[in-house]
Amino acid sequence: MLRLNPVLKLLISIGLFTVVVMSLVLIISVNRSPGDYGAEVVVVEAELPRVPGEIDVLEVQSMNLSRDQVKLIANSVFNISVDPIYENNSWVFVSGWKELRIYTTGNIRFYDHEKMQKTFLRREEIMPIDKYIQLARDFVEKLKLYGLIPWKISIELNKSREDVLAYDETIIGTINGSRTYYINNVHVNFDLYYDGVRIWGSGGKVRVYFGRDGEIIGFIGDFWNIKSTRKVQLIKPDEAIQKLREVGYGSSMPRSMISRVVIKSVELVYYAPTPGAESTVIIPVYHIRGFLIGKNNEEVEFVQWVPAVY
Amino acid sequence: MNLNWNTINKVADALLVISLILLLSIPSHTTIVRAGQDDSNDKEVGVEWLEIYYDLSNLTWTQEEAEGFYNALGDKGWTKSFNWGNDLAWESDFEDPSVGGSDYVWIDSVDFAWFAGHGAPWGFYFSRDHDGDHFLIKLVHYTEVKWGDKDLEWIVISGCEVLQWKPEGLPDAINRWGPAFKGLHVMMGFDTVRYDRLICLHPWGPCVSPGERMVTYMTRSWPGPVPIGYAWRLTTGDWQPDDVYAALLAVVDNYNGYFYDNDYLPGYGYVGPDIDDPMQPEYGFVYRRWQC
């Protein structure tokens, strides 16, 4: 190594070591600063829900569906008469472009892939809204006959929901040119409830897709086979708002730039994961929506959810 | 303690060595040390993701999201060209040389790219200033990009609202992002805000990366692979709740009636030829949005 006076060398080494270690500490601390909650004012413009002190935790279990049972459903409800293959905790039927999955946990996914991709409807081809809603109701009622929908879950059509009837759309055009609008499908969204609490999440959907002339070209049904095994203490909505401040708003607006947070809705829901596991759990969370107001008065929407249990 | 010159000398040497080792570890956080990429095939993938932002809120799952895609394509034989995260993900990697960018070295040197981080209708965000023209810093603005003039065919910009159809005060998605298509086939993203999550089968795991799920849809042997745009649709449906809308923007060949979101992954089906200038009259764009 260097041939210097050992004391001088030791002093240089200590100095260099200190500078390097302090630099690393500074970099690490700048990279990881999760506890910065900001000083924004939170305004609640929503009616906070009245919630019980305790709530059920929902455990999902396999329904032990037999091959014959699922074949009957496939044939009677979806007009598919091929033999299924069992993979990843689901019975899978494939017939041409049609694919139907019936999960052992009670969830259904059905798509006519070709029609989901290639249907283009003009506005004037759309039937009256009530017609779609009736067809969707009839379809869900038919499914109930096959025992797939657990009695503890209620399926409701909430007409006040903005997207009870929604469209997937395609717009074709050129830069600075005309626009042609098509509807790929009309779909009806149902809500799922357990004990009055809505089930929400990537696995909290009941939706019937319609193509041309009211043909059903897709269906999502999260009819979880649930069992309540225990109750857990629920945090109150105002505590959830405090938790929201801790976890952040998931928005791109810099925390330091947020001057006000306006909360427009706070809903206690059950969060349902994506189907596919042999068993799972559905947990209560608060689903919170609102917008952030920046120091320059710009507004940004946010949606976030926080656990509703301790 | 028996302290002599020899001991002091050894301690000083040890401290020097440790300091040098630590010093060498610092540049990996703050400066560029990057490898090149292979341009000799049509199956190259690159990803960039951000979880740590210094002046935006941090994200949690973007690394798993993007790396899931990267590794899954790698497992299918694709060349893994680059995987830049946090401070090493740079805005200039996406930007055109005309605004000081070097997209031709990075994002436009691969066939399929995935960005995961914060987004907005006007662009997507980075954590450090690496802007070639020092304008619109830490942001890839829609006016700063031209993709596909070298290689890029498909890109996912997985951030909130980047593909919002008609944001207030901005052009619609076709007029906003269409001029970026210089050989690019499809751009995929979200119309609305989205949740920073993985595809979880259980609240506490196991979880699947949405990137990996998309590769599964594009390459599955049974019931068969689906086109790239439709794979994005199925993936977002598995991933996000129903208050999220996803979207894509793709080139249309009006003469042949071909929509480029119907491209399959190379080796799994038809891939349309590159269109260098989709502003020519025989071409156009298709914008699709759907409820997740």
Q: How do the strands and helices of this protein lay out in sequence?
A:
The complex is a heterodimer of chains A (310) and B (292).
Chain A: H1 6-31, E1 41-44, E2 54-60, H2 67-78, E3 85-87, E4 90-95, E5 98-103, E6 107-112, H3 113-118, H4 129-144, E7 153-156, E8 165-173, E9 179-194, E10 197-200, E11 206-210, E12 216-222, E13 226-233, H5 237-247, E14 258-271, E15 280-294, E16 299-307
Parallel strand pairs in A: 1-14, 10-14
Antiparallel strand pairs in A: 2-13, 2-15, 3-4, 4-5, 5-6, 6-12, 7-9, 8-9, 9-10, 9-11, 11-12, 14-15, 15-16
Chain B: H1 5-25, H2 27-30, E1 44-49, H3 62-75, E2 79-85, E3 112-116, E4 119-120, E5 123-125, E6 139-141, E7 154-158, H4 173-177, E8 186-190, E9 199-200, E10 207-208, H5 210-219, H6 228-239, E11 245-253, E12 258-259, E13 283-291
Helix pairs in contact in B: 3-5, 5-6
Structure description:
The complex is a heterodimer of chains A (310) and B (292). Chain A has 310 residues and is an alpha+beta fold. Chain A folds into two domains: 36-55 and 230-307, Lipocalin (Beta Barrel), CATH 2.40.128; 64-224, no CATH class. Chain A has five helices and 16 strands. Chain A has a 16-stranded mixed β-sheet that branches. The N and C termini of chain A lie far apart (58 Å). Chain B has 292 residues and is of the alpha/beta class. Chain B has a single domain (42-291), classed as Rossmann fold, CATH 3.40.50. Helices cover 23% and strands 21% of the residues of chain B. Chain B contains six helices and 13 strands. In chain B, the strands form three sheets. In chain B, strands 1, 2, 3, 7, 8, 11, 12 and 13 form an eight-stranded mixed β-sheet that branches. In chain B, α3 (62-75) packs parallel to α5 and α5 (210-219) packs across α6 (228-239). The interface between A and B is large, with 75 and 76 residues.
